[in-house]
Amino acid sequence: MRKQSWLPEFLKALVFLVPLGIGVYGTTLAGVTPLKEAVFQSLCYYTLANPEVPANIFQEIARWTAPLATVSWVYLGITRIWRKLNNFTTFRKGNSVAVYGDPEQTAVLLEQLGDRGIAGEDEFVEAQQYIFADTEKENFNRYQHMKQQIKDRKVCIRVDDVHGRESGKNMILYNDKATAAVKYWQKNLLYDDVCQTDFTGDVVILGFGNMEKELLINALQLNVFDQKQKITYHVFEDTGRNELLTSLKAELFQNGYLSGSKVSGEEFQKVYHEIDQIPDPVIFHKDPWYDNLDLLADAERIIIFDDVQLALKVMFAIPKVKIHLLSDRKEEIATIENSNRVVVFDWRREGQNVEDILLNTSIEEAKHRHILYVQNKDKKNAPADTPENREKEWRKMDTFTRYNSIVSYNYHEIRRQMMKREGISKKDFLNNEDVQWRYCELEHLRWERYYYTNNWRYKDVEKDSVNLYHNCLVPYITLDPSIRQRDFNSISKLMAKDK
Fold first, then answer.
1. pLDDT averaged over every residue in the chain
2. Which residue of 236, 240, 276, 331 shows the fewest CB atoms closer than 10 Å?
3. Distance CA 249, CA 267 (A)
């Protein structure tokens, strides 16, 4: 937890004692020499119990300000007691959720929770479940501080990156930006922009921080529409912000307020060094976006995260361009004159959906998808599809494989929308071999992209999780028929759940 400054409490006490000091000084001037007598008379001002007529301006000031200080402290005391009583009542009702973090982070969560929500602020409160929505560092500090008190409660902790991290039985890790990125691509299907150009085109991302990184990774993993597609992602790190803002952001990052938000294109390319194996190129531009207006004007999509001013600049510089603005700044967005040129995605509300966080929707669905895969792989000894078996089979996998199931579940929503646009029904998929081949091949391409974005490479060996080699990183047509059949069976069972 952040260390709480003693200064605010000291200032409150100081303000409360100011009338006392003024009263003591005025009483002394009036001829009352014993200090204890002066203090006693001045304290009486706080309770309106000093009937004497003030002898000077100092006593007059003390006489009026002391009762105000008393009322303020009584109000603060009553407010504190009322808050504690309200929190206790909410806890006793059951299904309460205590939320901790910066007010900007917690406001959306508490609004969704309604009378179930408790603002934890900076002290421990009793609740059935907890959400820590602060920076990753502060969240784990808080968890360590409250560990014994919440050991039997579900705790959802916001982290900067969930990949490679292990959630426990009672501890759930989530990343609001990663969740928002997935939902963005699901709800703003890129298929619609590139289907008329043989699945080629340019997507421009202005700026590169933690949110933009999540958008890019999920774009490479989820935007899989055609075997021969070539969608180029252009990232402009220099968005034209002034040096003062850049310096301020660096200082905030240094102090931990923007933990995990600082990302560079050079670092990204070196860390994710196998993404070159993906046919969709990623190009990081060192020059600013305004030196590439022709590229932006012809792009299928321009994406800007949380910068209304930048969106206005781009709209002014390039006529008719449509911008996808990921922001929750409703008041600022409402002032944009040509709002039809802006597709707004409220990333905070989408990424901080309470039910998704508490119920862990994507993981639970991925557990179901995985047990379907297990059943298809070994039909003779397949476990029944029960919550207990889902959890058991899920725990047998390493974290990397689990997240592959999650990405597969996320991609199914995009596949479902693609099929709808192409007029393909479940029946078509089950009875038409060409349709089966196309969508199973796309699932394999999706699988390959997940492996490549995690730095796996091809080698003619069985799956090697230590050296990151896999012999299935090959064209779909060369796979063993039994593997292709498993893909078909898994997709079919997922479709069976669709309405």
1. 84
2. 331
3. 18
Q: pTM above the 0.85 mark?
A: no
Tell me: do 268 and 366 sit in the same domain: no
User: What is the reported pLDDT for 64?
Assistant: 65
Residues 294 and 254 in one domain: yes
Ranges of H-type helices in 378-477:
387-396, 399-421, 426-431, 433-453
- Of the candidates 483, 492, 378, which has an alpha carbon nearest to the alpha carbon of residue 435? 492
Give the count of domains, the chain. 4
Which pLDDT tens digit goes with each residue over 224-268? 999 999 999 999 987 765 444 444 444 444 444 444 445 688 899
**N-terminal to C-terminal alpha carbon distance within the chain:** 46
What b/e sequence results for 325-343 when a residue is b if at least 16 CB atoms lie within 10 Å of its CB, and e otherwise? bbbbeeeebeebeeeebbb
Same domain, 111 and 201: no
Verify that 433 and 345 share a domain, yes or no: no
Q: Which residue has the tokens 């002394």?
A: 28
Q: What is the chain's alpha carbon radius of gyration, rounded to the nearest angstrom?
A: 30
The CATH number covering residue 277 comes to 3.40.50
The DSSP secondary-structure symbol of 325 reads E
Tell me how far apart the alpha carbons of residues 81 and 83 are, in angstroms, rounded to a whole number: 5
> Can you tell me the distance from the alpha carbon of 492 to that of 382, in angstroms, rounded to the nearest whole number?
17
Kindly state whether residues 79 and 98 are assigned to the same domain: no
Lowest-confidence segment of 75-79, 161-165, 201-205, 446-450 by average pLDDT: 75-79
Residues 219 and 329 in one domain: yes
Percentages helix, strand, coil for the chain (3-state, rounded to 5) are 55, 10, 30
The pair of three-digit structure tokens given for residue 352, joined into one six-digit string: 């901080």
User: Is 171 a member of any domain?
Assistant: no
For residues 455 and 275, what is the distance between their CA atoms, to the nearest angstrom?
7
Domain assignment of residue 405, given as a range? 360-497
